[in-house]
Amino acid sequence: MNNRFSDVLHQKADLINAYLDSKVSQKDNLQGIVYEAMRYSLLAGGKRIRPVLALAAGQVLGEQEARILPFACAIEMIHTYSLIHDDLPAMDDDDYRRGRYSCHKKFGEATAILAGDALLTMAFEIAAEGALALEDPKRGLRAIRHIALSAGTEGMIGGQIVDLDAETRAISESELRYLCERKTGALLRAPVLAAAAVAGAEETRSAALLLEYADTIGLAFQIKDDILDVEGDISVLGKATGSDAKDGKTTFVTLYGIQRSKTLLE
């Protein structure tokens, strides 16, 4: 990564982190524990790829950064809620996330579930605020619809249910790609779709090219994740490895082998 790109990425991440921090500040002592759990997971680090992608797409499409920011951060909240729930014993049963205890190991399962629910709910609250601030709120409503579809049964959750099914039987290559497009890819398409909606540029060639780029990133993320589950180190990744093999899941590695998976990644 060249220094200029790295500097821009860090600047955008700092902006996003400051916005997220402001939204999950504790409001009431009676609610303190759920805010603590929300902050624990939301502000635990990470590259902020999804919100940075939204801001970058907005810039390409000629939209002001401040108008995109609420939608960008809403997507990051949804991503974080999905990680909290993904780590639960009923799902992937992972004890570690980003180098420390996962939310349910730190706060208990009930609080972790509520923290995830609260982040999902707050995501649409801040996206709605972003829509109301636009001269044409309908653009914001379209952005919210794109985000909802990307997070729901047509997107991430649809991919998650196929992922659970992959624990009970071998799935085909087409099913694996379906899983990847939704479980991982949907929340990488959402930033582009939301930014294009806010910019009024959904039907433009630029938006189509940005979506192709997002799809490529989504596929690469999933292949890389499958490889790291075999070859990765918990001390580097910050989460447990070997879970796919333990659960008997079909992955790019089990379908193609390590070497071909690495070739696909390149």
TrEMBL record:
Cofactor(s) needed: Mg(2+)
Gene Ontology terms for molecular function: (2E,6E)-farnesyl diphosphate synthase activity; metal ion binding
GO CC terms, sorted: cytoplasm
Any one of the GO BP annotations: terpenoid biosynthetic process
InterPro entries: Isoprenoid_synthase_dom_sf, Polyprenyl_synt, Polyprenyl_synt_CS, Prenyl_diphosphate_synthase
EC number: 2.5.1.10
Family membership: Belongs to the FPP/GGPP synthase family.
Protein name: Farnesyl diphosphate synthase
